[in-house]
Amino acid sequence: MEHNANVSKIERCSGLSDKEFYNTYVKKSLPVVVTDKAEWTSLEKFTPEFFKTNYNHLTRIIDGKTYTLSEIIDLCKTSTPENKAPYPNVFDLHKDFPEYLDDIPEMFYGKSNRLQSPLLPKTIANQTNQQQLFFGGKGCSFPTLHVDYHWVHTQLTQIIGDKDFILFAPDQTPYLYPDKTNHNLSPVDIINPDYNKFPLFKNAESLRITLKPGEVLFIPSGWWHTTYIHNFNLTYAIDHVNSFNWNKFMDENYLVAHKHYPKLAWVIKVYKEIMGKVFNLKEN
Question: Structural domains in the chain?
Answer without folding.
Answer: 11-121+129-241 (2.60.120.650)
